Amino acid sequence: MISRLAYRINTLLERRFPERRLFLKSETETRFIRLKPSTQAIAVVIGGLALGWTILATAILLFDSISAGTSRDQVQRQQALYEQRLNALSQDRDLRVEEAASAQARFNLALAQVSSMQSRLLASEDRRRELETGIDVIQNTLRRTIKERDEARGEASRATLALHEKPGSGHTEAGEVRDTVATLEFLTTRLDDTAGERDAMEVTAERAADRADKIAAEKKALELRNDAIFTQLEEALTVSVEPLDKMFREAGLAPDDLLKAVRKGYSGQGGPLTPISLSTSGQPPSVEELRANAILTGLDQMNLYRLAAFKAPFGMPLRTSFRYTSGFGGRNDPLGRGYRQHEGQDMAGDYGSPIYATADGVVTYAGWENGYGRLIKIQHAFGIETRFGHLSQIRVEVGQRVSRGDRIGDMGNSGRSTGTHLHYEIRIGGSAINPMTFIKAATNVF
Q: What are the E-state strand segments in 304-435?
């Protein structure tokens, strides 16, 4: 049975693969190798499998190469979009800086107007008090004059009655008449003078009343204008303070704690932001005083925010053209040392580009450190530290106090670096945080 099956298989193979002989000739003899149909079939199958495996392996390698190329293209496109977005944010930040400067200028102008209006209001208040005092004096004088006139009339009446009733008078009736006439003329003259003075006083009082009404109208107009100015100042203050408060909150810093810390360092009293008080008689403050004091309090808060902003690293370390490369977080080490934590933001630019301090502080380290190359460390307020690595030149010394915007070094390629760039770090309490948090938070303010 098995031999018959093998015979049939051999017969079928002979149709496709007839028996062949491979002759091998030497100098002394000739030999041949007999290739059976089954041997030829096995060779064909093995060759086909080898060819198929070669094609499959080539396809897999080509697919991997194409996939790797596509992934790189996607990464490059995403990086290009990311850089375009950062450039747009930088332009928007510059626009916000101009708007903030314009708002500050408008605010200063409005504050000067408030000071001028306040001076005029005090002057008008003094004039009103003087007029009220003058009106009181005129009214008292008029009452006294009317009282004197009535007393003179009573005395004249009593004198006339006494002349008529006096018994045994040595004067004749004609003499009494002359005395009475003289007395009446004297009294009439005095009464006319008193009436003239009264009329003059009434005219003066009417003029004073008109003047008081005019001053009251001017005061009302001044109050309306002051209300408009106060409203404009309050709106300008809100527009100026809210971005600063939002900037600190987005950076992860508590604004109240920052203001307390700054206020401890600037505890002097007096100056234009001291609360005002117009009342000297112990009366409660007016609405205008309350609004003005609220504005001054807001100005003081904004001034503290400004001081805190210079103490925290909200500035940019570069002012020349650059592009963001490796960001904060995990990444594959560029020198092939596996997956590592990247604790800063890399900014690539031209070799020797100026590097600037991003906040006021003190230089605590300026030298070479493994990995960082030439490194600068600056200690700021609120427990914040900034680091600038891979520099080509260091321009500060340990212990030197720097201000935001001071040039501290030049961009380079020192240390563990694959190209010219700045490695920028921000640490709070010794722990590294994402520097883009501060950069983005300051986008709408500086």
A: 323-324, 329-332, 339-342, 345-348, 354-356, 361-369, 373-379, 384-394, 401-402, 407-411, 421-428, 431-433
